[in-house]
């Protein structure tokens, strides 16, 4: 699903976002990415979503070599990758329904199918009753759920989330993580960046740790104990 082979990202001015990172994430895994601010978490996610390109190394996602992908192929790659951001990035001049529908409109999906998919996605995140609301009238947790619905409405095989619970209280953070677990249980691969170590430890999933652009730890969950 995702394969980094000695990938580095250097920015103009000499700043290194990632340095010689090698890792593999299999299809249907749910993996967390952690590290201090500036460790390279967002850079790694941006490379997978092709918001940035690697400076060196090879990066394969969904059997595509992103290091060789041409610019005109980028939109097709992004259709297979749902992205969730800490700041939601909702369009406040459009309704909740229209925000969630946006990826489908861009992809040229028919009006009737858009309605069906958007309402299914909103129902999944518990916001079907808010479809005609303006995003600004929603709470922070509700806005994050709209962002999640938008990321999954096109049924991508891979979802990336950059600090999706960073602005939420512990109870809401746990609810969002439970939503992610539900998506993972139906076969979606998830890579979630978070600095909330306590929350991640309760999820019992693989945790990748970055420091100064380098992968310094890869902790896999211990097998669950036998029946009680």
In CATH, the topology of the largest domain is named Rossmann fold
- Tell me the strand percentage band: 25-35%
Tell the overall outline.
globular
Number of domains: 2
Class by alpha and beta content: alpha/beta
List keywords for this structure.
single chain; 228 residues; alpha/beta; Rossmann fold; 2 domains; six-stranded mixed sheet; four-stranded antiparallel sheet; 26% strand; AAA+_ATPase; ATP hydrolysis activity; cell membrane; membrane; ABC_transporter-like_ATP-bd
What can you tell me about this protein's structure?
The chain has 228 residues and is an alpha/beta fold. It folds into two domains: 2-80 and 156-219, P-loop containing nucleotide triphosphate hydrolases (Rossmann fold, 3-Layer(aba) Sandwich); 91-153, no CATH class. The protein is 32% helix and 26% strand. The strands form two sheets. Strands 6-7-8-3-9-10 form a six-stranded mixed sheet, with helices on both faces. Strand 4 and strand 5 (64-65) form a beta hairpin. Helix 4 (111-124) packs across helix 5. It is globular. It is a peripheral membrane protein. Part of the ABC transporter FtsEX involved in cellular division. Important for assembly or stability of the septal ring. Keywords: ATP-binding, Cell cycle, Cell division, Cell membrane, Membrane, Nucleotide-binding.
């Amino acid at each position: 699903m995702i394969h980094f082979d000695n990938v580095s990202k250097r920015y103009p001015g000499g700043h290194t976002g990632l340095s010689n990172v090698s890792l593999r994430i299999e299809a249907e895994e749910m993996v967390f990415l952690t590290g201090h601010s500036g460790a390279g978490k967002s850079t790694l996610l941006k490379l997978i979503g092709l918001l940035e390109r690697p400076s060196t190394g090879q990066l394969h996602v969904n059997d595509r070599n992103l290091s060789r992908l041409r610019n005109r192929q980028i939109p097709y790659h992004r259709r297979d990758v749902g992205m969730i951001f800490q700041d939601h990035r909702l369009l406040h001049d459009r309704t909740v329904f229209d925000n969630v529908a946006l990826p489908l409109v861009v992809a040229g999906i028919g009006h009737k199918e858009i309605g069906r998919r958007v309402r299914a996605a909103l129902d999944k995140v518990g916001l079907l009753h808010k479809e005609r609301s303006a995003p600004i009238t929603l709470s922070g947790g509700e806005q994050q759920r709209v962002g999640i619905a938008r990321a999954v409405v096109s049924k991508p095989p891979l979802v990336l989330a950059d600090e999706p619970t960073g602005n939420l209280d512990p109870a809401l953070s746990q609810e969002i993580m439970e939503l992610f677990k539900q998506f993972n249980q139906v076969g979606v691969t998830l890579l979630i960046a978070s600095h909330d170590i306590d929350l991640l430890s309760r999820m019992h999933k693989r945790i990748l740790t970055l420091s100064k652009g380098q992968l310094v730890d890869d902790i896999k969950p211990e097998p669950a104990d036998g029946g009680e």
